[in-house]
UniProtKB/TrEMBL annotation:
Residues 79-124 form the Chromo domain. It holds the Pfam family Chromo. InterPro entries: Chromo-like_dom_sf, Chromo_domain. It comes from Hevea brasiliensis. It comes from the Eukaryota. This is Chromo domain-containing protein.
Amino acid sequence: PDLVKQTEEKVKLIKANLKVASDRQKSYADLRRKEIEYVVGDKVFLKVSPWKKVLRFGRKGKEEIEIQPDLTYEEEPLRILAREVKELRNKQIPLVKVLWRHHNTEEATWESEETMGQQFPQLFASGKFQGRNLN
């Protein structure tokens, strides 16, 4: 009976200490918490299930993105927006401005035309240029 009583007292002491620590963490978190408001056009990422899919809400509406176990996702080019030739001292590098899936035009990136042609030949297969020429 004495051993049981000592054990119960220790358990009560441990519970009390855990509650104190939990309350301290909560009060710290409450101080840092702030209200956030979103408006139409804001980008918001919501986690749907761990390491599988993410819902993205943006100007284009709701989109679902497949997430790999290493937290990456497959980028897919939609079309070429523009072309440009970068002039260096001894050579010229042809570039294309690529619009990527799940991104808007402001987030389009300049990429090497050669690399994009090798990785995504379907962008160049039609023979029609979909953007404007900046040369």
